[in-house]
Amino acid sequence: MADVLDAGAVRVELGGLDGWSGDPACIGRSVELPGFRDAIAVVDRVAVVAEELDHHPDIDIRWRTVTFRCVTHSVGGVTRRDIELARRIDEIVRGAA
Ligand SMILES: C[C@H](O)[C@H](O)[C@H]1CNC2=NC(N)=NC(=O)C2=N1
């Protein structure tokens, strides 16, 4: 679970996600919501999931655009835990659209 994925594996996993890009160092996605409160609501839902998974994205909030970056800090690269977190973020974003 803690192994850093290689470039090929990251590419394959990105194909199963919505709007994510990246490489073995980090994967990320930006989302534009209707307004600032919607952006914060998405971040708040992601916070619940992150606590549940005990795995936390790096989050940048700029007005109504939220950028999520997922990397397993303890090993310095993208692992299956980041892919799972990204998948859960996609579910939340789909529900907010
Ligand atoms: C103790 C706890 O499991 C760790 O500190 C977790 C918490 N959330 C984390 N999130 C991320 N993205 N990387 C980590 O290495 C990490 N470590």
Keywords:
binds ligand H2B; 22% strand; alpha+beta; Gyrase A, domain 2; 97 residues; four-stranded antiparallel beta sheet
Q: Trace the largest sheet across and list its strands.
A: 1-2-4-3
Quaternary class: single chain
Kindly state the number of beta strands: 4
Binned, the helix content reads 40-55%
The structural domain count equals 1
- What is the class in the CATH system? Alpha Beta
Unreliable segments of 5+ consecutive residues: none
Which ligands does the model contain, each kind named once? the ligand C[C@H](O)[C@H](O)[C@H]1CNC2=NC(N)=NC(=O)C2=N1
CATH superfamily heading: Transcriptional coactivator/pterin dehydratase
Q: Please state the structural category.
A: alpha+beta
Write down the Rg.
13 Å
Describe this structure in words.
With 97 residues, this protein is an alpha+beta fold. It has a single domain (7-96), classed as Transcriptional coactivator/pterin dehydratase (Gyrase A, domain 2, 2-Layer Sandwich). Helices cover 44% and strands 22% of the residues. It contains three helices and four strands; from the N terminus they run αββαββα. It has helices at residues 7-14, 36-53, 80-96; strands spanning 21-23, 26-32, 58-62, 65-70. Strands 1-2-4-3 form a four-stranded antiparallel beta sheet. β1 (21-23) and β2 form a beta hairpin. α2 runs antiparallel to α3 (80-96). The radius of gyration is 13 Å and the shape is globular. The protein starts with 6 loop residues before the first helix and ends with a helix. The mean pLDDT is 97. GO terms for molecular function: 4-alpha-hydroxytetrahydrobiopterin dehydratase activity. Belongs to the pterin-4-alpha-carbinolamine dehydratase family. It is an enzyme of class 4 (lyase). It holds the Pfam family Pterin_4a. Its EC number is 4.2.1.96.
